């Protein structure tokens, strides 16, 4: 094909890619819910873990500290931030100790304050209680609190609404200065926020963090000093990790891409090589992504699928490299592609079969990854075979004839080929290292996969203690037949937890019964409320000697009567109120069962708390231990999928080669290299996780290609030199990318980078020593 038609075809290919990208941009729904990369929970504890990781209050908490200015200025800034954050609509709770947050008790629910508060427990509204309250209100009206008290006085002389708001503050709230929370030293103003967005909603958490920074920026007024803002919590860490990961991925991607392009320029001495090689790879990524977007349209495409998928598509970069290295004068690019097609197709089909095993893993995220990879690799292979040759000009020289390749090939020919006993010995030694090296083999702690700096974690712990925020590890679980059952049992547990708090076994706790008493408790409080004539008589007696008019508290009497006649407040009645989000994290209702959760803070002795919980029909749930059991089950599923993948790889290679000895020679480098990588990682004391396993499979796919092409070259020296050139270019370009990842401070990226880099090195060396045949022709 002449130059102009080749250029037009290239432009057409690019136009199709641009159109596909535009279509994907309109239809792609991204998901950040990490639970898609976890197996379906089997035990009640695991189900609670999955729910709490995303929806629980601990996952939605953000802890805020303002410092670097005078306490007075910080208190004012805290108040201005609180008002702005409440107006943002992004937060279910915005607490800074300011008890003016009466929006937690909407107007339509105000009469219920007498059923939610414990004021009338043990006695009713008699003249003595009312007289004491009125005397206090007289003092309040002469104090700076008058502005807050006066609007409430007529309908709420006992300030029941304020008592509720104060009672709903964190159980171990810090002390106040200027009406807002401060740390023990009085140097930092503190705030406790709970987002509407779930912990596994990265976009929602990012929006919350942006709102906090915006509120801080707008809280400054003339004369303020240079205050500093600190935000910790799962959402803050998620945003930091996400930003850091994006920066590192962008840096390494740019460096890797530039290195890849430079490598192709040096290897093929044609400026078009990097551009043309990118077309099949880009097609693989675009069509793989489109397939996932279509097949998983209802669930959305997970961000990890994209990250893993594009890493795995790195295998596809080898396909155009093999074609470029096998071009030679006198043979058209199309014919060169046809000559290598059977070998290329064998590797692609075998690798795709292996990745299809992720469909039996029971994990939705891995199914997405399988679709992305299979469609992507198939696309890259087919475009390399049928489209790319049409864009290539006839070769002007044969790589096999280069003097540098002749010398390198001659040096490699002098290397000994490993006999079967030697290969088995190497494999046995590697397996022995893997099995017998002391130390923890698997990494089950999910927290260790997050690159949150130690000082940031320490700061989070400090603020969590100062604010009395709940522990993210322990929960008390109360399961029952219905909502009323678990609320009543929570109320019976409450005095026992108060006793533990008094003895410093725990610093605080939070439960749904603090906000929504059981219907039985509400009815008992109703029974203690006097009727209208009795309450008027008690109020008249209490008014004696006060400056208030006799009819000043008619609104209060009306509210009490409404409370006497109202049905008990139910969970559904709180829909649309700030309490709805709070209770959603503490009450789980469904499948004919109800579960109440009690969050804990400052847990000093888990064993004592566990004993108290068990004695009252509840249990202390250790989320860390439960997460480790879930990770272990997840890993078991992935390992079974990988074992099936090895069998499918072997079957696919044998089906193409139809020769047992050749099949063994092709598979042996990949299998032994995998054992050696594991041995090195174990010898270095690395605890293995899911990302190591996926990276091992990626390295195995690359190694399979290397061995297949050495087998394809046979004993022909010229063909061996072409294959050697292709494998070296593939290996060096892959090493460049993954060696950069190995330098990352992100544990996930580092695990993938180290594993694949080691895998490439071992696979290339073993493919040369096992799969390559002795050359018989010059």
Automatic annotation (TrEMBL):
Segments crossing the lipid bilayer: 249-268, 275-297, 303-327, 339-363, 369-394, 415-442, 638-657, 664-684, 690-710, 722-743, 749-771
InterPro entries: MMPL_dom, Mycobact_MmpL
Keyword Transmembrane helix: yes
Bilayer topology term: Multi-pass membrane protein
Gene3D superfamilies to which the protein is assigned, alphabetical: Multidrug efflux transporter AcrB transmembrane domain
GO cellular component: plasma membrane
The keyword Ubl conjugation is annotated on this UniProt entry: no
Alphabetic keyword roster: Cell membrane, Membrane, Transmembrane, Transmembrane helix
Main location: membrane
Pfam families on file: MMPL
Membrane transport protein MMPL domain location: 185-394
Subcellular location: Cell membrane
Descriptive protein name: Membrane protein
Organism: Marilutibacter maris
């Amino acid at each position: 094909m002449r130059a102009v038609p080749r250029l037009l075809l290239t432009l057409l290919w690019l136009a199709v890619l641009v159109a596909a990208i535009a279509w994907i941009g309109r239809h792609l729904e991204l998901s950040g819910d990490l639970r898609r990369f976890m197996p379906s929970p089997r035990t009640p504890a695991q189900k609670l873990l999955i729910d709490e990781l995303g929806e629980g209050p601990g996952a939605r908490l953000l802890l805020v500290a303002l410092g670097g200015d005078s306490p007075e200025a910080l208190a004012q800034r805290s108040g201005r931030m609180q008002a702005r954050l409440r107006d943002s609509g992004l937060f279910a709770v915005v607490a800074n100790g300011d008890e003016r947050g009466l929006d937690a008790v909407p107007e339509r629910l105000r009469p219920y304050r007498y059923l939610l508060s414990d004021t009338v427990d043990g006695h009713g509204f008699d003249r003595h209680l009312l007289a004491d309250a009125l005397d206090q209100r007289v003092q309040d009206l002469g104090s700076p609190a008058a502005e807050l008290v006066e609007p409430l006085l007529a309908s709420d002389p006992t300030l029941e609404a304020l008592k509720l708001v104060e009672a709903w503050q964190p159980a171990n709230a810090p002390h106040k200065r200027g009406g807002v929370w401060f740390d023990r030293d009085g140097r930092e103003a503190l705030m406790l926020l709970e987002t509407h967005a779930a912990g596994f909603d990265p976009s929602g958490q990012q929006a919350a963090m942006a709102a906090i920074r915006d509120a801080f920026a707008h809280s400054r007024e003339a004369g303020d000093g240079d205050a500093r803002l600190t935000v910790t919590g799962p959402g803050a860490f998620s945003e930091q990790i996400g930003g850091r990961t994006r920066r590192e991925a962008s840096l390494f991607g740019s460096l890797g891409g530039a290195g890849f392009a430079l490598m192709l320029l040096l290897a093929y001495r044609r400026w078009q090589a990097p551009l043309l090689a990118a077309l099949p790879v880009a097609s693989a990524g675009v069509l793989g992504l489109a397939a996932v977007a279509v097949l998983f349209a209802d669930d959305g495409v997970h961000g990890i699928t994209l990250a893993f998928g594009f890493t795995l598509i790195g295998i596809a970069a080898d396909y155009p490299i093999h074609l470029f290295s096998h071009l030679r004068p006198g043979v058209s690019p199309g014919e060169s592609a046809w000559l290598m097609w059977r070998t290329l197709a064998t590797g692609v089909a075998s690798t795709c079969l292996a990745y299809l095993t992720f469909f039996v893993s029971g994990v939705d995220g891995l199914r997405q990854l399988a679709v992305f990879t299979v469609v992507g690799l198939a696309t890259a292979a087919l475009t390399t075979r049928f489209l790319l040759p049409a864009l290539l000009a006839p070769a002007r020289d044969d790589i096999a004839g280069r003097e540098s390749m002749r010398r390198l090939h001659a040096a490699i020919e002098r290397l000994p080929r490993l006999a079967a006993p030697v290969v088995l010995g190497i494999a046995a030694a590697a397996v022995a290292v893997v099995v017998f090296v002391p130390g923890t083999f698997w990494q089950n702690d999910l927290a260790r996969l997050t690159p949150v700096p130690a000082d940031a974690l320490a700061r989070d712990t400090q603020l969590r203690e100062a604010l009395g925020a709940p522990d993210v590890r322990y929960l008390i679980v109360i399961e029952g037949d219905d909502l009323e059952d678990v609320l009543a049992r929570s109320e019976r547990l409450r005095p026992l937890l108060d006793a533990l708090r008094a003895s410093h076994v725990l610093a605080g706790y939070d439960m749904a019964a603090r906000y929504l008493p059981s219907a039985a408790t509400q009815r008992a409080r109703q029974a203690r409320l006097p009727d209208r004539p009795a309450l008027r008589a008690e109020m008249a007696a209490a008014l004696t000697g006060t400056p208030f008019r006799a009819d000043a508290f008619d609104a209060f009497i009306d509210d009490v009567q409404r409370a006497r006649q109202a049905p008990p407040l139910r969970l559904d009645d709180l829909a649309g109120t700030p309490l709805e989000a709070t209770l959603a994290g503490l009450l789980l209702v469904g499948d004919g069962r109800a579960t109440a959760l009690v969050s804990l803070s400052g847990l000093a002795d888990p064993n004592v708390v566990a004993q108290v919980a068990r004695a009252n029909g509840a249990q202390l749930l250790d989320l860390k231990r439960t997460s480790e059991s879930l990770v272990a089950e997840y890993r078991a599923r992935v390992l079974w999928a990988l074992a099936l993948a090895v069998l499918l790889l072997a079957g696919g290679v044998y089906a193409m080669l139809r020769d047992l000895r050749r099949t063994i020679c092709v598979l042996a480098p990949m299998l032994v290299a995998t054992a050696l990588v594991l041995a090195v990682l174990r010898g270095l004391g690395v605890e293995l996780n899911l990302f190591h396993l996926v990276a091992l499979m990626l390295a195995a796919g690359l190694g399979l290609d290397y061995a297949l092409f050495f087998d394809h070259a046979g004993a022909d020296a010229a063909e061996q030199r072409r294959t050697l050139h292709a494998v070296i270019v593939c290996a060096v370009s892959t090493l460049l990318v993954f060696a950069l990842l190995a330098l990352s401070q992100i544990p996930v990226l580092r695990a993938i980078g180290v594993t694949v880099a080691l895998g490439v090195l071992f696979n290339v060396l073993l493919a040369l020593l096992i799969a390559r045949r002795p050359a018989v022709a010059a």
